Amino acid sequence: MNQTRAFWITAPGRGEIRAAxxxxxxxxxxRVRTLFSGISRGTESLVFQGRVPESQWDEMxxxxxxxxxxxxxxYGYQNVGRxxxxxxxxxxxxxxxxxxxxxxxxxxxxxPAGAVTPLPQGLPPSRAVLTANMETAVNALWDAAPxxxxxxxxxxxxxxxxLIARLCRRIPGTRVNLVDPAQERREVAERLGLPLxxxxxxxxxxxxxxxxxxxxxxxxxxxxxxxxxxxxxGTLVEVSWFGNRPxxxxxxxxxxxxxxxxxxxxxxxxxxxxxxxWDHRRRMELALRLLAGDPDLDGLVSGESPFRDLPTxxxxxxxxxxxxxxxxxxxxxxxxxxxxxxxxxxx
Length: 347
Known about the structure:
- This protein is α/β, with parallel strands linked by helices.
- Strand 13, helix 5 and strand 14 form a beta-alpha-beta unit.
- Strands 3, 6, 7, 8, 9, 16 and 17 form a seven-stranded mixed β-sheet that branches. It has a six-stranded parallel β-sheet with strand order 12-11-10-13-14-15.
- It has two domains: 164 residues, Medium-chain alcohol dehydrogenases, catalytic domain (Quinone Oxidoreductase, Chain A, domain 1); 129 residues, Rossmann fold (3-Layer(aba) Sandwich).
- The longest helix has 14 residues.
- The two termini are 25 Å apart.
- The chain has seven helices and 17 strands.
- It is globular and about 65 Å long.
């Protein structure tokens, strides 16, 4: 067994780096040494603060989570690393490959070979930490089914909101507008070709008769004016998850007379109209290809810290002290060099 380290949430609002062990891979397994992991500002903040409702403890389990909610728990799902050992029966060509895995913040780990997805050519590991966010954005578009020429408003210019807006903008004829009160996000939005206003009141008049509104701010206040932006028979797609916070929604006004629709979107389930042809692996491969083809998305990483600083960084992000934070990347300095062979590739 080799020594490694992992980040644990020890109690609501507190985390620490703990010692762990990782062995050599058995049949069908491989070992990964982490290069980068990403902090999911929305979901991981709720987990860090102990705000996962008990009714959702099973639904919110990460694939390789250790411990139980509300803690202690080792949680996370945006891990990019390099395979440094392969077990019997594993394709030896995976050795040395950069891969994405839904694994927590940990320096090295063993997983079944099928749990990793190799990065496509042209996708640097530093950008691949956005993979889970891109999956969420893809699933949101599947749920919403935007079409040619739609007027679309995205409320919340965090990572997921920006990715949704970026994907929607590529549909011919669409008019996409972003709303976010954080002035700090205007620059990154504009670099992606997305107009951003700080209030719904500042939207151009045509946007107030939207075909679709995506709500991705994570703030209940963002819902208050969302329905007012929809035209008749329009749809509001709720992408945010609020944990145990109560949320009120104004269903008076135009809600009934305009026959508006509110639809939830959650990345854990592929929409029923896709399941005959799509599974989670195919969706992840799509997310990776979309990231590889769009180097402008590097701007969604707003900061980077070494792994040793993760407890402090997570506390700061969860507290919301910096409204400009998008994806914060964690760098595993001990693993940044060349891969040293531990288990030679099988002939």
